[in-house]
Amino acid sequence: MADNITTTTVSIGGISLSTSIRFGLLIGSEIPSLVCSLFVLYNFIFDPALLRSLPHHAIICLNITGILFKCIDVPLYLNYTIMDEVWPPTAAICLVWWLADYGFYNACVAFTAWISIEQHIFIYHNHWLSTPRKRFFVHYLPLFLIIVYLLVFYVWVIFFPPCENIYDYTLSACGTTPCYVLQPIPGIWDAAVNGCLMAAIIVVFSIGLIIRVLMGKYRHHQAMHWRQHRKMTLQLVSTSSIFIIFDLPSAIVIFIHLCGIPFDEGNILLPYFFFASYWLIFLIPFVCLHSLPNVKQRIMKILCISPRQQATVGVTIMTAPRKGEKADLGFWDFLRIPGFFWDPRIFLGSPDFLGIPRIFLGSPGFFWDPLDFFGIPWIFTVPLTL
């Protein structure tokens, strides 16, 4: 999708799937993926422990670019499938669409390539990160340079291209590729470096990590490394597998084109590869979700669902107010007693609960004094563990 480099129009609308099927597949994947991305990003950013963890920084960048892609590219394409044209038909919309389609997509590939390299450092060369100075040059500086490079390159080639763009608002993604992909230097650089090279790095370093892990199991100290970084390794393998399945085929076709081999066969397959590459972005957050500790508890917290706790419960004996004493709590506070609606011992008035209903209903003035009905005080609390 982000690697179009043909002299003809390549559009994902050329696949033999009806509009309704394409729309259903995309919207059915977009919504859960976007929700998962926001959930993962929220936890990584607002949890100080996760935010300080070095392996999570590139994952945060990966999720941010994925969210931007899903918030720009996918809605524009869904809008096109409904209206059968680019709307609104302006050059600005086309440029923003291309920025998402090329820039944000290839940024996800680049961040994954860096993650595949950095995992080797975290597992086998963590002494390179032992001091703040080393962490700056080995971890922070490369990530910063990747972000700056991607931002500068794609803003330049899309918004300030060395050629003139042509827009066709009746076709998906404004019909044609950005003009820079047909230029010798920026076009070949984008396809070879940002596309093929990054895909090759993901494949080589991921397979290399698997080989090192398997070989290291024969050595005691490296087996310890495997147990310590098992989750990190499995996450990289999962992420790399997604990229290999959904991105590598199009990268291979582009590489064949760069080698001068006729592109006719590739033109038939590329629209399908580009359409399938949407699921590369859709599946990334679910793999990143595996990096979060206590996922179930975090989801319940977001949904405001508190797990049932075996905790100390306050049992209240309620009497009429003393003379000159103000009634602070009443009937509605009684309803909030833990277990009032689900624990039968409350209603049966068992000895454990000191006959709360009988005491409450037997309070002087309960049926005729509004102060008693709405303002019966809590005199003291007896702790009891369920």
UniProtKB/TrEMBL annotation:
Keyword field: Membrane, Transmembrane, Transmembrane helix
Record Gene3D superfamilies: Rhodopsin 7-helix transmembrane proteins
TM regions (residue ranges): 23-46, 58-78, 90-115, 136-159, 191-215, 236-263, 269-292
Matches recorded under InterPro entries: GPCR_Rhodpsn_7TM
S-adenosyl-L-methionine listed as a keyword: no
Domain of life: Eukaryota
CC annotations in GO: membrane
Protein name: G-protein coupled receptors family 1 profile domain-containing protein
